[in-house]
Write a structure and sequence with these properties.
Number of domains: 1
Number of strands: 13
CATH topology: paralog of FGE (formylglycine-generating enzyme)
Largest sheet: 4 strands, mixed
Distance between the termini: 21 Å
CATH superfamily: paralog of FGE (formylglycine-generating enzyme)
Radius of gyration: 18 Å
Order of helices and strands: EEHHEHEEHHEEEEEEEE
Structural class: alpha+beta
Strand content: 15-25%
Helix content: 10-25%
């Protein structure tokens, strides 16, 4: 687990490389989709935190240019491409006027960690630990950058949904997508799992920390408390010049009540 990759972000705490042993588990073949989440909401009446807050973060290029003044309440100072959009939620990914009717097989987004945990409990599952997620994402390979090897586009073929062009203003969409895509849009990894890198970030169970060492661990689950939860896998916004976190060992974090148009999740069952 982990990496000593020279171009990793030191503050992310990706290293050192360390041996981890995991008990058997099953993990969802795909991230939870809009169709899956609708079944949960239909049965339970659950309201996401974005719905309760009445807003969420949307990437600026995915909003209609002629409605920016109408839709955008504010932007993030350190990342002005993130817009606070009133009415953006899992049913309305770009705010009022958008919908998921033709995106049933896309990963559900605008879901916080708390929302993801609620879905997992309803489904009789749980969120994966970071160690489970990383083992699954590697697809049977060891210490490779990506689920398929060390080359991002082997033979010129795109194998995940990330940014091409000049972030954050020019996305050439050479991989076929300029935003989230259906969960089966690219080939699976060696374990038959789809969309493990790129497309949308995926929540993990662990509280985020960076205090790793090289000692062997069994079923690590992170600290008992913290301020932010681990996210893995990168998203359609990741680019080498900005967020080179679509590597298997890469990691970031967010507060449990946070949501955005590039954050989703998948679940596990511990055996």
């Amino acid at each position: 687990m982990g990496t000593d990759y020279a171009h990793a972000f030191p503050a992310d705490g990706e290293g050192p490389v360390r041996p981890v042993t995991l008990s058997p588990f099953r993990i969802d073949t795909f991230p939870v989709t809009n169709r899956d989440f609708a079944a949960f909401v239909g049965e339970t009446g659950y309201r996401t935190e974005s719905e309760n807050f009445a807003w969420s973060f949307v990437f600026w290029m995915h909003l209609p240019p002629d409605r920016l003044d109408e839709l955008v309440e504010d932007t993030v100072a350190a990342a002005p491409w993130w817009c606070k959009v009133a009415g953006a939620d899992w049913r309305h990914p770009e705010g009022p006027g958008s919908h998921v009717k033709d995106r049933q097989d896309h990963p559900v987004v605008h879901v916080s960690w708390n929302d993801a945990a609620a879905y997992a409990a309803w489904a009789g599952k749980s969120l994966p630990t970071e160690a489970q997620w990383e083992y699954a994402a590697r697809g049977g390979l060891e210490q490779k950058l990506y689920p398929w090897g060390d080359e991002l586009t082997p033979g010129g073929k795109h194998l995940c949904n990330i940014w091409q062009g000049q972030f954050p203003r020019v996305d050439t969409a050479e991989d076929g997508f300029a935003g989230a895509c259906a969960v089966n849009s690219f080939p699976p990894n060696g374990f038959g799992l789809y969309s493990m890198t790129g497309n949308v970030w995926e929540w993990c169970a662990d509280w985020f920390h960076t205090g790793f060492d090289a000692r062997p661990r069994r079923d690590p689950a992170g600290p008992s408390q913290g301020q932010a939860k681990v996210m893995k896998g990168g998203s359609f916004l990741c680019h080498a010049s900005y967020c080179n976190r679509y590597r298997v060992a890469a990691r970031t974090s967010n507060t449990p009540d946070s949501a955005a148009s590039n954050i989703g999740f998948r679940c596990v069952v511990n055996l």
